Amino acid sequence: MIKSLRGMNDILSEDYKRFTYFINTASDVAQKYGFHFIQTPLLEETALFKRSVGASSDIVGKEMYQFIDKGENDVSLRPEGTAGVVRAFIQKKLDKAGGIHRFFYHGSMFRYERPQKGRLRQFHQFGVESFGVESIYEDANMIMMVCDILLACGIGYRLQLNSLGDAKCMPAYHDNLVKYVTKFKDEVCKDCIRRLDTNPIRVLDCKNKICQRIYKDAPKLINNLCQSCEDDFSKLKNILDSNNIDYEIDTNLVRGLDYYSKTAFEFVSDNIGSQSAIAGGGRYDKLVEFLDGRPTPAVGFAMGIERLMELIVMPESPKNGYYIGAMDENAVDLIVQLSHKKRKTHKVSIDYKAKNFKNHIKAAEKVNAKYFIIIGSNEIQSATMVIRNLKDNTEKTVTLKEF
RNA sequence: GUGGGAUUAGCUCAGUUGGUUAGAGCACUGGUUUGUGGUGCCGGGGGUCGCGGGUUCGAAUCCCGUAUCUCACCCCA
After folding, report:
1. Residue nearest to nucleotide B50 (CA to C1')
2. Is residue A118 located within the same domain as residue A236?
3. Angstrom distance, A5 CA to B65 C1'
4. Which alpha helices (H) appear in A184-312, and where do they start and end?
């Protein structure tokens, strides 16, 4: 038997219902915030991801589905959504057009990782990107949007917040931290030594107990912000406070992608295992110019749909449509005709086999039909039928022609 | 990429120290007076015990390999 590739799942039945329910709910919220749908290709030049996500990140370093196509182009399946949207933004010259551009997207992402619960090789994200707004209010707007989406889906969460600083304060802090950790390089773990090269800030949330003791006294980024970052961060907290949004400051919160600066946030759930981040995002003011666009402030987030799936509280699906059953064989042709006519406007379930009343009722309950009709010799003779409303148990008689 | 645990019917799981024809619940399907309400009752189909080797008179059971899932690490949505 040929099976799907490792970490690549089929989505059907109940899962598909939840999946589309989430996309519809999130899209609806995004539109209320004034965002517009954008679709970008699944395949892009590898260079796009190397330059945006950052060559140092694991995603680009070892997790991309990368290959040379028949035209000798170095291409990769997208591992995340922001890079493609920024590329499209620049390619359509919206950076030069000026003004504010707000987009949302959803679709498949690909990372060649070891699968586990909440971590797949092909997975789906819903994301939002806002271009041209420097104001910290837009950062708050992003967070409020995630809250609204999660609320609409009945999902509980904790919000973690940090500031990563900008080009003014981040490099200096970066150096300080490296110097501090280097002093203890004989005591910290192997992973942390490696992180010093790749992403030093990551050492701060190392799970190793010895490392944690050392880092307790390490310099904190949040205490080393420049004035404008500091101002924005406290303003952001004020905005969230006044909108009744709870958050925790997590000075160890680091985004894995190189393009983030200033605001970083992550929504986590305690109910889905170790892959607990259900949404993450932040500001990336430098990315547009890194990708050869005109400098444009930007902020965005992405949500991992598979991680949200089991948390979504679905509304009860109401009884819907008709069930038409045949009591004897020679009524089958008639119910096929009736269903063909009615399906122009309604959902209709039928069975091609004649059954007794009880079995038809069972079948009607199973497909969650609202109306129930039985056709047998009586109906054919009288050219009328009884439509029973299974919800409120009322009946009415109509002629076959009227139906 | 590293280390642990798991894999038996469509699903959730039993299966004793290796020993007849591998079970249950749910689901599916048929019947239960072919005309008014689901829960009842009686049947039925469905398994190369993940896959491939090995040990043994005999393997779902023990050993090795492999695939997938899962947990932790790593990383991230």
Report:
1. A1
2. yes
3. 21
4. 190-198, 209-215, 227-242, 287-290, 305-309
